[in-house]
Structures are given as C-alpha cells and as structure tokens.
Amino acid sequence: MSFSIMELQDDVLGGSRAYAIASLLAAAPALSMTLGSAAVGLGVPSDVVQARFQNLSAGLLIGALLAEIYPMLHHRLIGDENDKHLAVSNCVSAFVGFVLALVVMYSLHSLEQSRSAAEAPQTEAKELEDAEAPASPRAVVLQRMATAQIAKLRSGSSNLDVAISTLSKMQKGEGDIDIEMLDEQLHSIDFALDSMRRTCHGVDLLTGMATQEARAKIADLVQDVEALQAMSPRKVSVMDSQLQRASASLKRLHAQTNPGAFRRWGLHRTATPGSQVNQLSDQDRCRLPWGLIFAVAIDAAVDGMLIGLSTSTSVGAGMLMAIATVIEMGFLGYSFSCSLVCEVTKFKWRGGVLAGLLALPPLCLLAFGVGAFAIGEALQSCFVFTGLVSFALVAVLFLVIQELLLEAAEKNEDENWNVSIFIYVGLFISFGLEVFL
C-alpha cells in the first residue's frame, strides 16, 4: 500500500488507543444499523432502489474480502518453507472454521424460515383438543383457527383436483394442445397452491409497513397497465417491451402475497390471521419472535467479528471492512425494525421492549467487534486465529450470496443493467479504498 494510515499502525496499535480505534470502526456500522432502525417511519424505498443498494453493498463486501481478508488467509495457509508444521496447523484450523461457519449459517437460515406463527396455534389447538381439561377461551379461539385452516386446505385441494383432471385429459389426448387452455389451468393450480401455502402459514392480512409496500407495488402495476392500454397495437415491439415491464411489476406484487419469512432487506409480512389476533390471551401477546431476533443478532455479531479480526492485523483492513458493512447494516436495521413494528402493532408490546430488541443487534456488533480485536491481538501468531478468520470469511460470503445477491435478483426480474451494474460500482469503490487507505 501507499503512504497512509497503515504507516502509523505500529505507533497506534500498541496501547489503549488501539481499542479505541477498534471500537470506533465497529461503532460505524452499529450506528448505521441504529439509524436504519430509526428510519422505519420515513417510508418504503422502491424495489429498484433496494436492489441497487443491495448490489452496491454486495460489491463492497466482496471487494473488501478479496482485497484484505483472502490475502491474509492465503498467506497463513501457505506458510513459510521453514515452518511447515505451522502451515499444516493453519490449514486444519481454516478447514474447521470453514465447516463450522457453514453449519452455523445454514442452521441460522433454517431458523429464520422454519417456524411460522400459524404452526404454533395449530399445534397448541391439537394439544388442547386431546386434553381432558375443560375448554378455556384461549382453547376455543385456537380450535376455531385450526378448523378454519383445515376447511381452507380442503377447499384448495378440491380446486387442485379440478385443474389436475383437466391437465390429465390434455396429457392423455392426441394432437395439438391449446396454449390458452393450458395457461388457464396452470394459473388455477398456481393460485390454489399459493392459497394453500398462505393457509398453512396463517397469512390472511398484510399489515403495517407491508401494506404500504403492497400499495406502492399496486400503483406501479396500474401505471404499467395504463401505459400498455394507451399503446397502439400496431407498434408490436414497443408493446412487447411494455408487456415485459408490466409482467415484472405483476410478479413483484404477486410475491407480496406469499407467506414471508424475515428477509435481510425485505419486510416481514404478518403471519397471523388478523381476525383472530385480538382474541388471543395475554400469554400469546407477550410471545417474542426469538428466531428472528437471534438470526439478526448473529448476523450483526459475524460482521463485527470480521471487522475486529481485520483491525487486529491492520487499521486499513479494519477501516475497509467497516466501510463495506455500513450500507449493509443500515438496511438490515431497517428490515429488522419493520418486522418488529409489525409485531408491536399486532401484539401491542410496550415501547421499551421494542427499543431493547432494536438495540440488541448493534450492541452485539460492537461487542463482538471489540472482542474479536482483543482475541486477534492475543492470538495473532496462533493457528486459532486462522480458524476465526476462515469462519468470518465464509459467514460473510454466505450472507452476500444467499441474501444480498439473491434478493437483488428477485427485485430486478426485468434485468435492468442500471441495477446490476452497482455490483461492479461497489467493487470499484472497495478497490479504490484499498489503494487510498
């Protein structure tokens, strides 16, 4: 690197100021996450804006990992000619960290999506049905919810039978197949499957911020359809382009009706039948979404860990990782706040509970950042440090690939170049920061 903060590293990272610098670097994304949580009342950014920032954040993180973390890990794995034992130890430690990161992140991913709010009432209703104790008001409510759920599933199954019967006749017939008729049956099956899946997850209503997002997407669809209707049928190529835009708007709106788990940059859609919420007991109202809270806290802790480990090797590396995670953590805080606001509206929690839950992930990021810096300083020459770096590297790559890039692709279904190019803008900024820092 050129002359920069790096040349002051030996003077700075030797005393108490080292921990102050590590704390400041970890505090930057933590503050960004806090500001993102506070921005929940400002409205919902459009899908295109979200996709651009997702791609920019992914590019920044990938560039930072390539510029700072991977070279560090590569050097420790190869080792020196005179110290082959240390290299072998580092390889084993890196492998353990690699596998452990995959286990933790896939477990965390399944934790985010595995449990819906509808499963708990259904299970509890079954237990109460089997119990010999007199039925309580809560048991009656849960039983009513389970009965309505079963009725909807049976209705969806009947609709599927009709559509499948028609498709079976097409499959057994001879000659050409009418595309219009086939498409009609496929849409019928698609609606039946989506309806049954929403029933399984207990999704009846969109509430809170999800309602605002749905209305914004409805407005986009109406605008695209009106523009399509105003076109002349003689201009086939222009009409086809507008048809693609309207189709993309329809897909984005249709995705809003699917039962939603927590998305890193998306809103958490309500997963409890709105007509039954007010009838639940006080015990149900106090139930916290610990799966969501735990997932976001671990996410923030991993980012803080990588910042701390990077700072223990060089201030420039830590600063680059902190800058790369600022945008990412800001939108993560926004998404987390949107999800909890929906829960507060539904279950009427106290404001102090919401504030405490929103403060937990930034505090985890800050604490793990400073803690990882201290561990990195103490274990810099130990093979355990290699395992920690490997763990953090794989965990962040998992979040970039499985969350940021996938969600950005979902929002950019029409594949606009001015959205996907932000990945490379992020890479360029990251490499530029590497040069100047």
UniProtKB/TrEMBL annotation:
Q: Which domain of life is it from?
A: Eukaryota
Under which name does UniProt file this protein? Uncharacterized protein
Q: Does the keyword field hold Transmembrane?
A: yes
Q: Which organism is it from?
A: Symbiodinium natans
Ranges that cross the membrane? 20-44, 56-73, 85-108, 288-309, 315-341, 353-376, 382-405, 417-436
Keywords, A to Z, come to: Membrane, Transmembrane, Transmembrane helix
